[in-house]
Design goal:
globular, 47% helix, 11 helices, 7-stranded mixed sheet, alpha/beta, 7 strands
Length: 282
């Protein structure tokens, strides 16, 4: 990562260099960046079980996210994932408008713009860096936005929902931002990889597809060569929040059991038995 060759403001350059000085490995590995993120999280007094919105807001404004954006553009696997998503979007003739939700440094938006100049891309990012805005300015079809006041043919969300205390509320907002028969490309990491992945979301690693379906999102396929799944919005009926929250509560209740391999096998065998009886008698 050659900082001198990257267009940064003086303030950004100083902040990034100061962070890089804290890394033992040069160039850093992904795990080194995660460790640094955790250190910043702790320094700001953040707690992923007792959430303080002010401290967490400070965390997501921190230059560590600028460094993360710069790192992504040098990391082969991260680039592979984003190129795969960009390929799927640009090869789909139904898509003319895209919202990159939580688009960070704008890397994915720029890949899409490079592959198809006719697709209009909005990047919803509360804390865009100066560098991200400068890079996006080279593409007339990319805009950074801070409000959601229209609907899109496709919404992309990569590694966002595990960072928020109420991912289902945010998923509902995302679903409402998509046109009927539009697409949502979403990648989640409901695992304790870094401290800003909130434990209250981890149960969704087992129930996310079911809850997405309850919001009118039908799972289509996995986006090849990426960590994302593709959904189509097939229903615009009002959400049944009682059923959604009840399912969420059940998901949270079952999560400790499902995390136990014996418990998972028992529940799966019970489900298989119920399915067999249903086919036999009904």
């Amino acid at each position: 990562m050659d900082i001198e060759q990257i267009e940064l403001s003086l303030k950004e350059r100083k902040a990034v260099c100061k962070l890089l000085e804290r890394l033992e490995n040069q160039p850093p590995e992904l795990e080194n960046l995660w460790e640094l993120m955790d250190s910043v999280w702790d320094e700001l007094g953040c707690d992923n079980r007792r959430l303080d919105s002010r401290k967490i807001s400070d965390f997501y404004r921190h230059p560590i996210w600028l460094l993360n954006g710069l790192f992504i553009e040098t990391h082969d696997l991260s680039i592979q994932h984003r190129l795969a998503i960009a390929d799927w979007v640009t090869q789909n003739s139904e898509i003319y408008t895209v919202l990159d939700y939580g688009g960070g440094f704008g890397t994915l938006a720029r890949f899409i713009a490079q592959k198809n100049k006719d697709i209009v891309i909005d990047v919803y990012e509360p804390y865009p860096s100066e560098s991200a805005l400068i890079k996006a300015a080279n593409y007339t079809q990319i805009s950074f936005v801070n409000t959601l006041n229209k609907r899109y043919g496709c919404l992309v969300s990569t590694d966002v929902l595990e960072h928020v205390p109420d991912p289902l509320e945010l998923l509902a907002q995302m679903a409402k931002s998509i046109e009927l028969n539009g697409f949502l490309i979403i990648a989640n990491c409901f695992y304790p990889v870094i401290k800003c992945h909130l434990p209250c979301t981890f149960h969704l690693r087992y129930s996310f597809n079911l809850l997405a379906k309850m919001m009118g999102l039908e799972f289509i396929t996995v986006c090849q060569n990426s960590h994302a799944s593709i959904y189509r919005k097939v229903d615009e009926a009002p959400f049944n929040w009682f059923a959604i929250r009840s399912t969420e509560l059940l998901s949270k209740t079952l999560f400790p059991i499902l995390e136990n391999s014996w418990g998972y096998r028992f529940i799966k065998s019970t489900k298989d038995l119920v399915d067999s009886l249903r086919k036999l008698f009904f």
